[in-house]
Amino acid sequence: MRTFTIAAAAVLSAAALVVSGCSSDHSGSATRTNIDTLRIGTIGSGNVLTGPLGFAHSRGALVSALQDQGVENVEIFSFPNGPDLNQALVAGELDVANYGDTPALVARGSGLKTRLLALSAFNNNAGVVAKDPAIQTLKDLAGKKIGVPSGSYIDRYLQGALQEQGIQAELIHLFPADQEAPLNSGEIDAAALPDVNPSASLHAFLAKGFHQVDSVYDNHPNLAGTSASVSSDDFLSSHPDFGATWQQVLVDAEKYAKDHWDDYVNYEIGSSKFPADVVRAAARPETVPTEPFPAAGIALLTGTKQFLVDGGKIRSDFSLDEWLYRPEAAQGS
User: Fold this and answer.
1) How far apart are the first and last CA of the chain?
2) Where is the signal peptide (predicted)?
3) Could you tell me whether strands 225-232 and 114-124 are parallel, antiparallel, or unpaired per DSSP bridges?
């Protein structure tokens, strides 16, 4: 059962305003002749890029690498979760979307004509925390309320973990930033949280005294998430060389971050609202790929897609291989 609290509804209303406000003087349609300003959607707040791509942008390396594609500027739009970002993408108000695999797959399975340009991260952790010391395992949450950002990779992990153990619980749609108060008050019994920067909420809650009940890494490694970089068919058709260039930009940014890891983590600390120790704990070089489609990431993505198909979350099944953007195939079509 899904329950939408008043707080969550307010956030969703705010998100709708963000979507409607994506257009700016530098925007235009996805099929515009000249890109000029590249519009990137991401999950978070403050309209900033994070991760290796954000690190590259902070060094001035992003725009310079895209100038041959007619990019003179980059504009970032933040969204509280993937489903809200999808609305802006379907409206043609974004050129590239960087977010979790679950909303990206659901969007494609709902008929949104997109292509997966790359996996920007894989083996993403998530976990469940509680305040009540009597709650030690997922089985202790049978029939209880768990806050979770609906439609996210965290949601997919939680539903998969509960299903594996035959547990039924009431899932309440709450963004991570809205979960602490109802967890303290007892309105919810547990919170399902991301454990990746910039949303290192799992470690942040643990640092505040909540205890871990379950996690991807410790209990369900097969349910790890991936992060997707997606664009629309319209945009890629209008700019046929962009896809290959974007893939190279991502790979270069990822290799640089891994080769300069301490500097990269310091960048993440400076960009985050969380304490330095929390950011460091969530920063893991093994989650950063150095190719667009790492085999381990595709295996996780395949499992997530099948789970969503089996659960009816993907309305129309599709070929994962055909969804992957491969420059040689695109040029031959």
Assistant:
1) 44
2) 1-20
3) antiparallel
**HSE toward the beta carbon, residue 231, CA cutoff 13 A:** 26
- How confident is the model over 84-95, as pLDDT tens digits? 899 899 889 999
Report d(CA 192, CA 171) in Å as an integer.
10
How many other C-beta atoms are found inside a 10 Å radius of the C-beta of residue 257?
Answer: 24
Nearest residue to 56 via CA among 311, 273, 248, 254: 254
Q: Please name the amino acid found at residue 128.
A: V
Report the distance separating Cα 131 and Cα 144, nearest Å.
Answer: 13
Residues in the chain: 333
Report the distance separating Cα 193 and Cα 149, nearest Å: 8
pLDDT at 72 over 60: yes
Strand partners, 100: 227
C-alpha to C-alpha distance for 192 and 194, rounded to whole angstroms: 7
Question: Is the predicted pLDDT of residue 118 greater than 60, yes or no?
Answer: yes
Listed residue (184, 227, 188) closest to 51, CA to CA: 227
Q: Which helix (H) or strand (E) holds 49?
A: none
pLDDT for 331? 56
Structure confidence by residue, pLDDT tens digits, 307-324: 999 999 999 999 999 999
**Spatial strand order in the sheet of 170-173:** 2-4, 170-173, 145-148, 190-194, 126-130, 211-215
> CB neighbours of 130 closer than 8 A, spacing ≥ 6?
141, 183, 189, 190, 191, 210, 211, 213
The C-alpha atoms of residue 304 and residue 299 are separated, in whole angstroms, by 9
The structural domains of the chain, ordered by start, are 2-124+225-332 (3.40.190.10), 126-223 (3.40.190.10)
Task: Look up residue 295 and give its two tokens.
Answer: 């085999």
Q: Between 101-109 and 295-310, two packed helices, what is the crossing angle to 10 degrees?
A: 50
